[in-house]
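Batch manifest, entry 17 of 40.
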Amino acid sequence: MERPEITSVFFDQIRKNGKGILICNYEGPLTPSTINKNRNLTMLTFAGRLEKMISLGCEVIVISGIPALKTKDLMGLRSPLEIWGSSGVELLSTDGTIKTRDVDFNQAEGLHMAEQKAKDFTTPDRITVRSVSVAVSWRDLDKSEITELKQKLEDGWKSLDTRFNLKAVIFEGGMELVARGFDKGSLVKRILDFHPYSSSYCYLGDDFSDEEAFKALWGRGLAVLINKAYRETAAQIWLSPPGELNDFLDEWIWALQNRNSDCRD
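Output type: structure tokens
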């Protein structure tokens, strides 16, 4: 992995100040899968590096669309983690306690209406309903079908956005309407508020839905796109997994092991 200037500055901060906070999105290339053995291997090597980083004082925070305890079990880490599960509905702290919050009544009503509208545009198997969002997948559709479905969703959900305090978000393979305050950008802002004293934040994300999180970190830390192929992004650097991601984490580990060091030998 090439080390652009911004990456060098980031690791210099880690060496001088220690620790740092790594925020990573669980879904995507880091998700273990019983089907994709390469992805399983990626998660195992990633988890091993996270364990090392935590042991050296780095705080690791995970954002996940599934429940926090399930995320923790799937990641298989022994070290305590802070996990914002169910898209921010749950906050699992490192001491094992869980706090919850939910959408307000107005947002819940809007999401119900969004679900009903989605059913007018596509089949139920393409709709995923969570307490904070309604998502529609267009995976496996051809280009013209995707364009048509996307337009219907944009038109159908447009009136719900402002009225019910919701936000339309494009993700890789679909579109969702999510309650404001529970999108990834809002979650990253909340995490920064919860941890205001770190000078070294880093967010790893792979999806279009991570773009708001990247923007939330502008001026506060390092935003990293983890994807096999480069695309236009608000992230400051792009890493191709698993090789460049592993190199990046190894660099972080080295910085933690060499705190207060002026330069690399």
